[in-house]
Amino acid sequence: MTVNSHTRSNPDISIILDQLQSNTSGLTQKEACKRLEKYGKNELKQVKKATPLKIFARQFIDFMFLLLVIAAIVSFLIDEYIDGIVILGFVVFNAVLGFIQEYRAERALEALNSMIAPQARVIRDQSEKMVDAIELVPGDVILVAAGDRVQADCTIIEGELQMDESILTGESQTVSRIAGDTVQAGTIVTHGRGTCIITQTGMKTAFGKIAAMVLTEDKKTPLQKQLGQLAQYLGIGALVICIIVFITGILRGFPAEKMFLTSVSLAVAAVPEGLPAVVTITLAIGVQRMVKKNAIIRKLQAVETLGCTTVICTDKTGTLTKNEMTVRKIYADDTLIELTGEGYTPSGEFNSDKDINNESLRFFLQIGALCNDSSLIQDEEGNWKILGDPTEGALVVAAAKAGINRETITSRYPRVAEVPFDSDRKYMTTIHEDHNNSPDYLVCIKGALDSIIGMCNYIHKDEIVQITDSDIDTIRNIQQDMSAHALRVLALAYKPVHDITPAHDNDLIFAGIVGMIDPPRPDVKEAIATCKKAGITTVMITGDHKDTARAIALDLGIIDPEHQDKISTGADLDAGTGLGALVYARTSPSHKVRIISSLQDQGNIVAMTGDGVNDAPALKMADIGVAMGSSGTDVAKEASDMVLTDDNFISIVHAVEEGRGIYDNIKKFLRFQLSTNIGAILLIFFGLLAGVPLPLAPLQILFINLLMDGPPALSLSMEPYHQTMNRPPRDPGESIITMDVLKFITGVGILMFIGTFLVFLYALQLYPGDVDHARTLAFTTFVFFQLFNAFNCRSHQYPLKKIGILSNYYLIYAVVISALLQLCILYIPFMWPVFHTVPLNGYDWGIVLCVSTMIFVIVEGVKIIRNMHHP
Predict the structure, then answer these.
(1) For residues 28 and 487, what is the distance between their CA atoms, to the nearest angstrom?
(2) CB 3.0 to 4.6 Å from 295: which of 290, 467, 766, 802, for a disulfide?
(3) Are 627 and 386 in contact (CB under 8 A)?
(4) How far is CA 85 from the centre of its chain?
(5) pLDDT tens-place string over residues 336-377
């Protein structure tokens, strides 16, 4: 039991208030702004990020860049000054491109970190408000309750708290803190509530001093590591191939210096050195898109797991429903009463078939307002809002409709002790002074009917009488009727007592029950249907009555009338049965762990929602822990991988879609780049074996590399998602280079090689002795192969017409830019000696376009045929 400690009993608090030039009413907003400027933001210093200059400099220490520098030096030594200058130009240009990609990726990740803004409940201008924790200053008065993470060092000025200080001390056992004690930033309130005044913020807190000693670099995600290793393997493979190319060229009689430049250029072109940066950018862009859909990713690893999710275990209240509880029915004083009104506006009528005993009804409503931690406020625009739990808020609004102001009634009955709501007990107890009556105290209890009815020996009717089995049967029948209409039911009880020390969970007086509605959110039913189509099972877990859960689940399509038996209760789970259901009612957070474990044992990838302190184990255990941003505790958010800013189930579905889409876009980039790699390597290698001049000059190969890592490749990371929720989840153990990717890059790479090589051989016959003209034709054909292949890579499954020709305008711009660059090389005279090109005539362009478009026609044709058989 928590007993309030009053500031007047502790002189040290007065001294602290004087030192901080504050008081129990808090600071004014104007004074808070002054102090924020003086003391700085309440934030911890992050790892010192690399400066733009450092990011640019490290582009030049990459192995492939060093190879190019060596190639430039060799060019100068053999008097190929133009080649040397151009190679150095490529070095600088690639460094700039790499810098832009890396700088953009780092800034995107910084932006993601700043999106997770903890908030605090603070008193400013003598009223409660929510502010970003980063804006807290010394002297601010904050309100904390079970589940909150303390955001700054502070001193308790009222209340008693149980604190988890393991983050600082390493001790797992909670400790008690009372008025006058210090609580430190980073610690967690496990029980109780209190009022505290902030003494230190930011790096001056105890947590900040520890953080200063343990700053670490951000870790890469498994996918980033996998692709980084892939790039290394490709690099090693490319070097081996290029050594073979070099030796083969020497044996065929080509000059050593020419083969060296060709091999180096091929090695650089064959390695996707831009892959890690593109992956990071793709992840960051996707996560930013998730933010716009109300899902904040706390860990990038979650993005990869989202695409594999097979089961979403979700709370009902606030996630599937609006979390705007409104009292609709009251059973009190042996009378069933209906209450009108919408939302949190305190206006409505109390209607009943019987005469309403206003005195009894008002006393019932007072109990609900006293055993309550929520407040009803009106914002500057005149809208009514609830600060606190929406279920408690519904009771406050119901009381306000009868003219009972919670602030007034709590001053009439000041709270002196409390036992906070516990998910295992399923009820909350408060004790209030009552100086106008004897006994001196009033105990108020609210919670689940099943928990409270057994503690009641009396019932409040016209007078207080012994409760009978008939009374209990009537109450349960009314509860079942309310639950069948999707009303959430709470019971209220009370007892006058002489002191506050004994336990007060027996001999209670039953006051009545309330039925409150929390309507389903719009479009949730459609989102659940989308999950079914995507191979994702939705499991609803709620503390509500079984009948209430069934009514909501049927309405939303989680279960159908033929499978109403797929509902279990917490009691079933405790008895060792009930696993495998689609709906779990009357559960506690401890049951969530058991449900997750069972689902994971079956090979499922599980996303689990939660908002309370006791949900933390389940959130950590789930493959994707999803915390509620509006109603969730700080502990739940810290334990989660993702936070929903709107507490909406639809946002989870959107996040899964984004996770799948991000992964798809990374595979598109791989298809584009690796198919070009294979085509370029085959072209040079078989060109050497065929005994003809090299089909591509070294600088032409480098230009092709520029296009691979340049605009078309990056634009694929911006590709809209296509039908991602029309297929089952992917296997989490699957390699990024799947069989479909391998078939695509091999088949397309061979097509590019054959087409370009045949054009080169034909051009050698068409323009005898003019190798530069033949190479220009082959070079331009290969470049346009790339540009048409970029459209192929937009979707592995669907033809261009189905996904929309203009749906990715970034790619349109990228292809136009790349084509213009190629035209510059062909038709600007001073470019001719640099790239060993000549201007192409109309006949040449006919060859280029006829051959290069074949890659688009063939791949698109395969997609069309495939969709005809599998639409």
Answers:
(1) 42
(2) 290
(3) no
(4) 47
(5) 999 998 888 999 999 998 888 888 899 999 999 999 988 888
Residues 6 or more apart whose Cβ sits within 8 Å of residue 785: 679, 751, 752, 755, 756, 852, 855
Measured between alpha carbons, how far is residue 479 from residues 453, 456, 516 in Å?
12, 16, 11
Looking at the whole model, is its pTM more than 0.85? no
> Catalytic amino acids?
315
Q: What is the DSSP secondary-structure string of 619-661?
A: HHHSSEEEEETTT--HHHHHH-SEEETT--HHHHHHHHHHHHH
Q: Which residue has the tokens 């979403």?
A: 312
Tokens of 98: 């790499």
The b/e string for 714-742 (b: 16+ C-beta within 10 A; e otherwise) is bbbbebebbebbeeebbeeeeeebeeebe
Indicate if the pLDDT at residue 172 is higher than 80: no
Tokens of 781: 């054909």
* Token pair 């999803």 in the structure block, residue: 626
Distance CA 399, CA 365 (A): 5
672, 789 Cβ separation under 8 angstroms: yes
**Who contacts 181 (Cβ-Cβ below 8 Å, separation ≥6)?**
155, 156
Q: Taking residues 548-557, what's their average pLDDT?
A: 90
Residues 372 and 406 sit within 8 Å (Cβ to Cβ): yes
Q: What mean pLDDT comes out for the span 651-665?
A: 90
Q: How confident is the model at residue 169 (pLDDT cuts 50, 70, 90)?
A: low
- Please tell me the distance from the alpha carbon of residue 756 to that of residue 251, in angstroms, as a whole number: 24
The DSSP bridge partners found for residue 189 are 163
Instruction: Output the DSSP codes for 318-339.
Output: TTTB----EEEEEEETTEEEEE
Phi, psi values for residue 192, rounded to 5°: 90, 180
Closest Cα to residue 193, out of 430, 481, 482, 543? 430
Cis amide leading into 52 (omega within 30): no
Tokens of 175: 């400790």
**pLDDT of amino acid 713:** 78
